[in-house]
């Protein structure tokens, strides 16, 4: 391991306990940002810098009181991680970037592009799921189904993926298949909020269709 990476990792080790607190103070937040900035300057190719920055952006988003504030932070995150990809052509950074792009409609196309690039290089459950989310955001439900089904093959349980599969089938007008996936998800996890929401959607659409 290079000296610069060691320095970067040590600085991040100082930041981690500060940002992992349940209620982070302004002083701890400021110190953490300083450590992360120094870690980035020490080694811009260190992926851990960017995963820690992701935590900072999530803290910022959690503290937002208006949609305008949220959008400003999301745009800053998008810019940050797009620049990071130029520094480090890393699939995990592309995944983080795609997740932020999904939060703003005008960036959905870019989310798909980077998620699929990362997926081609290194298929993982999370990448398949995010690629599916990206395709849903662009109303490409057939492509989304392909990605979600691949993710399902890699999942231990699948209860979090099944409502997403149900949504795709519902969007295609296949109420029976949508209901099947929702029921399977609820059988595995009765408290699955997304599955419960999907079940209500299916019942409402079925009622509207029959009426």
Feature tags:
11 helices; 211 residues; mainly alpha
Structure in words:
- There is one protein chain.
- It contains eleven helices and no strands.
- It is elongated.
- It is 78% helix and 0% strand.
- With 211 residues, it is mostly helical.
Q: What topology does this entry show?
A:
Blueprint: H1 3-19, H2 26-42, H3 47-62, H4 67-87, H5 91-101, H6 108-121, H7 125-137, H8 141-154, H9 162-171, H10 175-188, H11 193-210
Largest sheet: none
**What integer value in Å does the Rg equal?**
20 Å
Q: SSE string, helix = H, strand = E?
A: HHHHHHHHHHH
How far from one another are the termini?
A: 67 Å
Helix count equals 11
The count of DSSP E runs of length 2 or more, i.e. the number of strands, is 0
Helix content: over 70%
Classification by helices and strands:
mainly alpha
Strand content: under 5%
Mean pLDDT: 93
**Unreliable segments of 5+ consecutive residues:** none
Shape: elongated
Concise structural overview:
With 211 residues, the chain is mainly α.
